[in-house]
Amino acid sequence: MNETATRVYAEIDLDAVRANVRALRERAPRAALMAVVKADAYGHGAVPCARAAQEAGATWLGTATPQEALALRAAGIGGRIMCWLWTPGGPWQEAVEADIDVSVSGMWALEEARAAARAAGRPARIQLKADTGLGRNGCQPADWAELVGAAVAAQAEGTVRVTGVWSHFACADEPGHPSVPLQLAAFRDMLAYAEKEGVEPEVRHIANSPATLTLPESHFDLVRCGLAVYGVSPAPELGTPEQLGLRPAMALKATVALVKTVPAGHGVSYGHHHVTDSETVLALIPAGYADGIPRHASGRGPVLVGGGVHRVAGRVAMDQFVVDLGSDGGRVRAGDEAVLFGSGAHGEPTAEDWAQAAHTIAYEIVTRIGARVPRVYRNA
Ligand SMILES: *Cc1c(COP(=O)(O)O)cnc(C)c1O
Question: What is the tens place of the pLDDT at every residue in 356-366?
Fold first, then answer.
């Protein structure tokens, strides 16, 4: 692709993905690493990122939906794959046939896994998910004995193999949060119960990116890293990517579509929330909320253009927004590059900066970059 002719594109550096996987493996040296590639690898492209992560030593891949896991297999990706967000009637048999580890949070899911195993003629690899306090998916402690008992019975009849026991943190991105040790204790209890009942999990796991980075006692046999694999910091309090030893993999770049001088007192974009205070130069950036640029960053989102960082002037529209270049105006021409975010190494804003501007988290900034934005891969 000729990037200079491209309206907006996301440049993905697969060497950064590899370096981040290696850095995370060093942070959790006794655990295996699962690269979480759900939601199209947080907007970075599931298949290329899965391959890069495997090249750097990730032995597991994780997805939310079974469809995402099956798509990886359809692309020819081997190794262990686990998916955890099931609904009744989901593609259980396809998952069993594709050698995907499936998460089971309740009795209905165990029943569907058993039925799929019978139809497929081979055992389902299931991982029992404990709700140790997140209060989202997973089996409550009060229901654990029933689920574990049924799983052990299904294992004895040969329809399932319990390959894992796992859970997920609510507040691992807030170091020192009191729920973290409570969840770890609950996980150890639920794990001990399952093992006493005869479950021999190959992998026990609870750590996401922030726990991998800050909480070694949470690493167990496997760490599940999503955002950190893409080099983005899970929370400002944890540090910048650089401080965490990570390299941002995505840079979002656009081509300036129009540069023009407008008089003082000119309204800019829908609603006229920005009005020029003197004669100035505006640059039109051809990317909008349909591309994943958060409308909540209207008036605030930062863009590197013409050697300086300028803020979105007025509203972000569906396909475009404007920056007021002020005294830098003379240096910018239509066709110049505008960098919305990147590693920050060349003065450009970061995904974390956009998260702050939009009052959201960096997870959402990279993940919501839309399907209309081409991904351009470096170091494939
Ligand atoms: C998304 C997800 C992860 C990865 O979380 P990060 O904070 O991005 O590392 C891990 N486990 C589960 C269950 C998830 O849904």
Answer: 999 999 999 99
CATH topology identical between 31-229 and 250-378: no
Residue 173 Cα: closest atom of ligand 1: 7
To test the pocket of ligand 1, the residue of 208, 238, 244 to mutate (highest count of ligand atoms within 8 Å of its CB) is 208
Q: Is the pLDDT of residue 4 over 60?
A: no
Using a 10 angstrom Cβ sphere, with 0-12 exposed, 13-18 middle and 19 or more buried, the burial of residue 226 is buried
Q: What is the pLDDT of residues 222-270, one digit of tens each?
A: 999 999 999 999 999 999 999 999 999 999 999 999 999 999 999 999 9
Please report, for residues 75, 101, 199, 286, the alpha-carbon distance to residue 220 in angstroms, rounded to integers and kept in the order given: 30, 18, 16, 46
Nearest to 217 by CA among 149, 285, 169: 169
CATH numeric code, 250-378: 2.40.37.10
> At the topology level of CATH, where does 31-229 sit?
TIM Barrel (3.20.20)
Q: What are the residue ranges spanned by the domains of the chain?
A: 31-229, 250-378
**How far apart (Å, rounded) are the C-alpha atoms in residues 95 and 78?**
13
Nearest to 94 by CA among 118, 64, 127, 70: 70
